[in-house]
């Protein structure tokens, strides 16, 4: 047993690996206070929020080498390693992009300080979630993300926004209550909340009881809700349709990647190196197949662009789960690569959906003829959609190639037929997704419209969009640069 | 002291009651009540299981945190219900379906 002084000492040293999160926590307080002073100037709170995210990002980058040696923080509640650091970097960049998108809205943002404080809270929750290795921390950080997201979903202050917020809340709260019930049994059966502890895995292997399966399935329900995977997806299209577009872009990346990060850790423990009596690979493959199929086929019938993106997000969760379902170290590396390509592609699409939404285009038909008038925005939107589909020459293609390669390796190793089925469904669904992803570009470039407006090509969107498009093309032409960085990440528990 | 499994039965009963309330009752306020039952079932489990592992207080600490989170969840939930009531003049989720039409 440690003495009190030793515990105090270890807590004090833990703060060294916790700097970005401290910055975010302080930032939330400062944003709320700044909102009281600059009531009518949303510019200041936006600037402050962007600075907080930038500071957190810079700290991640400066500590990058220190993260290479994993260590537990705060008596193993959290774990600082390069896997979580990589995801935290993507999360911070997504936060920055969301702030930029929000400031482009011509309408004055109501309750701007609260809005930015909630954004920063979700980012902080996502940071903690990818770092957590204790069931208590997982629950707390997941609720931190969820509670702020319920409020953010209603930030359009319209009837529809309120409805989306209510549906999000009902689904989210019930699935997190079920997850907590699962956690309580996992704690009872193993005697520890630290799921990376050796005794957790040992109890899992030594005392196989059906209760384990039920408890872990309940626990997984919470994660699947957070990443919008199939059996728990009905909230997705409603929330995506009703929430403000910058918030939707944020939801499509931040909570999803945070949930995937913790899911990758948690399922690796459950699988226990193949010694577990229940085949969790089967469960993950089944969920991935279901997400792919439900997401893609429902997206085919959609008429609203944001609703379509909601179903696309469900399908993308299926593709991201493929990286975890392979249960191979390189699967995790490829998952990180695909997640980066997905984040960039998704932000390109939402950036321009937001741009066109402000011009009054939201249904698919209304995009008719826009390609002739708004040439560059439409071309960039097309590249974003191509990347989400997974066609060359974009990073989405490279990412899909990588994760399916690792899945094929997993099939060669295990010979399980469900893995082969996942492969077949994944490839077929890529073809299906082509039909709906290319519908907006089809309307934009092929159909004729009656737009006569002249446009300025030198907008902020085009500058930011160009940057992202160059990024996604770079991921295709030179994937080695990012992969070399990712390959240094050590994902052992 | 009563054996641990009695508490687990009570927990399971509370959890299923909460779930049934959420599924069958149509009012959002009743859904919030059912949610509290589900969360408290987990709390009961955590505290009961802690007596099996007397070396630490992890389960009891977790239960304390869950109580705080449950309060936050109820606060956010009630705020959303209030907003829905202002806009739709109802708190029944089934009557709030203008999306997807």
TrEMBL record, chain A:
Where this protein primarily resides, as one coarse class? membrane
Annotated EC: 7.1.1.-
Q: How does it sit in the membrane?
A: Multi-pass membrane protein
- Give the transmembrane ranges: 12-37, 43-64, 85-103, 115-131, 138-157, 169-189, 210-229, 249-270, 282-302, 308-328, 335-355, 375-397, 418-438, 463-486
Alphabetized, the UniProt keywords read: Cell membrane, Membrane, NAD, Quinone, Translocase, Transmembrane, Transmembrane helix, Transport
Is Repeat a UniProt keyword of this protein? no
InterPro entries (UniProt xref): NADH-Q_OxRdtase_suN/2, NADH_UbQ_OxRdtase, ND/Mrp_TM
NADH:quinone oxidoreductase/Mrp antiporter transmembrane domain segment(s): 132-418
Q: Which reaction does it catalyse?
A: a quinone + NADH + 5 H(+)(in) = a quinol + NAD(+) + 4 H(+)(out)
- Please verify whether the record's keywords include Ribosomal protein: no
Per UniProt, subcellular location reads as: Cell membrane; Endomembrane system; Membrane
Function text: NDH-1 shuttles electrons from NADH, via FMN and iron-sulfur (Fe-S) centers, to quinones in the respiratory chain. The immediate electron acceptor for the enzyme in this species is believed to be a menaquinone. Couples the redox reaction to proton translocation (for every two electrons transferred, four hydrogen ions are translocated across the cytoplasmic membrane), and thus conserves the redox energy in a proton gradient.
Q: Which HAMAP family match?
A: NDH1_NuoN_1
Protein family (similarity comment): Belongs to the complex I subunit 2 family.
The subunit field of the Swiss-Prot or TrEMBL record says: NDH-1 is composed of 14 different subunits. Subunits NuoA, H, J, K, L, M, N constitute the membrane sector of the complex.
Q: What is the protein named?
A: NADH-quinone oxidoreductase subunit N
TrEMBL record, chain B:
**UniProt xrefs under InterPro entries:** NADH_UbQ_OxRdtase_chain4L/K (IPR001133), NUOK/Mnh_C1-like (IPR039428)
Instruction: Give the residue spans that cross the bilayer.
Output: 6-23, 61-82
Write down the PANTHER family for this protein, in alphabetical order.
NADH-UBIQUINONE OXIDOREDUCTASE CHAIN 4L, NADH-UBIQUINONE OXIDOREDUCTASE SUBUNIT ND4L
According to the UniProt record, what class of enzyme is this?
Answer: translocase
Query: How does the record describe its quaternary structure?
Result: NDH-1 is composed of 14 different subunits. Subunits NuoA, H, J, K, L, M, N constitute the membrane sector of the complex.
A Gene Ontology molecular function term of the record: oxidoreductase activity
Asked if the keyword Oxidoreductase belongs to this entry, the reply reads yes
Its source organism is Chryseolinea lacunae
Key words of the record: Cell membrane, Membrane, NAD, Oxidoreductase, Quinone, Translocase, Transmembrane, Transmembrane helix, Transport
**The protein's name:** NADH-quinone oxidoreductase subunit K
Query: Which subcellular locations apply to this protein?
Result: Cell membrane; Membrane
Question: What does it do?
Answer: NDH-1 shuttles electrons from NADH, via FMN and iron-sulfur (Fe-S) centers, to quinones in the respiratory chain. The immediate electron acceptor for the enzyme in this species is believed to be a menaquinone. Couples the redox reaction to proton translocation (for every two electrons transferred, four hydrogen ions are translocated across the cytoplasmic membrane), and thus conserves the redox energy in a proton gradient.
Enzyme Commission number(s) of this protein: 7.1.1.-
